[in-house]
Fold this protein.
Amino acid sequence: MFKSPTYGKMDISQIPDRILMFYQNHQQYEMPVHIIVGTDSQNFDYTKIVSVIAVVCEGHGGIFFYEITHQPLIRDVRTKLHVETNDSLKVAEELVGIMESDGKYEEMYLNCPIAIHVDAGNSTNGKTKELISELVGWIRACGYDCQVKPESFVASSIADRISK
């Protein structure tokens, strides 16, 4: 079950209608609308995983939806990033499936390709630098654009804040 600060609890099947509404309401600005999926996780006695779907109109705000799941504790950074990336890809695939199944989403789907944000960066002190090429390659092989830190704000800011 996803949640939205704006729309409350909703099933993922309801989200494309909300995205379409946002898309149509923001066409007046003649600015790109982006659909972005990102996931982050935090360790407690378990691993809390937060997947976010964000819809952003450049310069004119956005909306987001998030889902929280829990898994047994994942200590290994590589495994954690693989779980996060896999969750993002599953959410993106589910959205694509819904949007491809109904012609009312066609214009939006063609004009707003889904991108994936990964909570990994090139920092010299970071633990994730060496994983970037394999994660980005995996995501691009699945047909999505990909961003890493510092551009990956959906994973590294929105999902991160909710996961804490």
